[in-house]
Structures are given as structure tokens and as C-alpha cells.
Amino acid sequence: MEIENKSGVKTPEVKILKDGPIILKGFFRFRTSSGEETEKEHEILLCGCGKSGNKPYCDETHKKNVIKS
Amino acid sequence: MYQGNKKYTNGEITVFWYPKKCIHATHCYRELIEVFNPGRRPWINMNGAPTKEIIRVVKLCPTQALDYKYNNEDANIQKSGDQSVAEKMVAEARIMKNGPLVLKGDFTIIDADGKEIKHHKTSLLCRCGASKNPPFCDGTHSKTGYLGN
Known about the structure:
Structural class of chain A: mainly beta
Strand order of the largest sheet of chain A: 1-2-3
Oligomer: heterodimer
Radius of gyration of chain A: 14 Å
CATH topology of chain A: Ribosomal Protein L9, domain 1
Largest interface: A-B, 38 and 32 residues
Distance between the termini of chain A: 23 Å
Order of helices and strands of chain B: EEHHEHEEEEEH
CATH class of the largest domain in chain B: Alpha Beta
Number of strands of chain A: 3
Helix content of chain A: under 10%
Strand content of chain A: 25-35%
């Protein structure tokens, strides 16, 4: 889905997968819990099940666990 | 808009507190315990710091559980002008340590069923997998002791 806002920039998209990660895609500023910031075109898979061994990122651990979504 | 559950004033500004929006991110009292002290009643002491400092910390609140307005209407007009400039800024996704994903600004959010979710300025998405109101954070992470960068 491509949505353009008033300034002509595509609105970044957040997709939540059932029992899986949160996918962030588009141009936005990403700030980690340690305060590192990157402002660019991103495609990030964040852990949404709470069980990743590589947080905040998804490491596919959710496939081994059943979580409620 | 300003029908908060609680309000506190120092004569210059009024701080509004919306308990239902609070997820205990703790930014307010870690930054300014002289004003925001959960162990005291009332928990907000408007005489604990200068107005400018109170506004700075209110703005740090990631959930908008804290808000403020000037008691003087002319100053509010200036404030809303400043905010519309801020809203034009780039969208931000922020990871809160041991807590949710905070989305600020323009995002299109699609839930697990493929439906677009209403997003207005700020959304907090659950990262711990235990929220009873997915995909949003409901503060459960603080009860389960979720740890995550």
C-alpha cells in the first residue's frame, strides 16, 4: 500500500503479523532503547512475541512458540 | 479536549493528567521528582520547578498521559503554532526499553487481520506478547517483568 501525505512523502507502514513480528517499512526516524537514531528508508522486523534472543529485532523464535495475538 | 481526570496549575500553566493513558514509562519522575512524585499526594507539585522545566518534562511523556496548556489564551495560540510545526516533522518509531514500540507522527498501521488501525499522532504497540489489548500496549509488560532492548 502506498499512501502519499500532503508533502508528497510516502507514509511509512507498520504491519503486525499474527503471532509474529512487527514490520516497519518506509522513511522514518528509528530510535533504539540505547538512544541510537537513524533517519532513512527502513525495513525493520521487530520482535512482537517478546521471546526473541536478539531484541528489539525478530529472530524467528516466535515460530517455536505459540503466543496469543 | 482538556477534560482531563486531574489538573494542576501554578497560575501560569495547567498540567493535565490522564491516568488511563499512562503506562508508567517513568520519564516524568526520573527527570523531575521535585514536581512529579508518585509517592506523594497530590503527586504533581506545580511549585517544585519553573514552568519552562515542567513543560519540558510534560513533553517527554510518550503516551500523552501528561499534557499542559497556558492559562493565558494568547500563549496557547503560540503553543498550537509550535505544535503544528512539530507535526510536520518526520515520523518516528522508538523502542522503549522493557516496554512498547512508540510510533509518533504519520504511520499507516495494518493489524494481523489486514485491517488498517486508527493512528492519531501516537500509538504504543505491544512488544512483550502479553498485552490483553493487542496490538496495543496495555502496561502488562511491567507486571510480567518483560525485559527487552
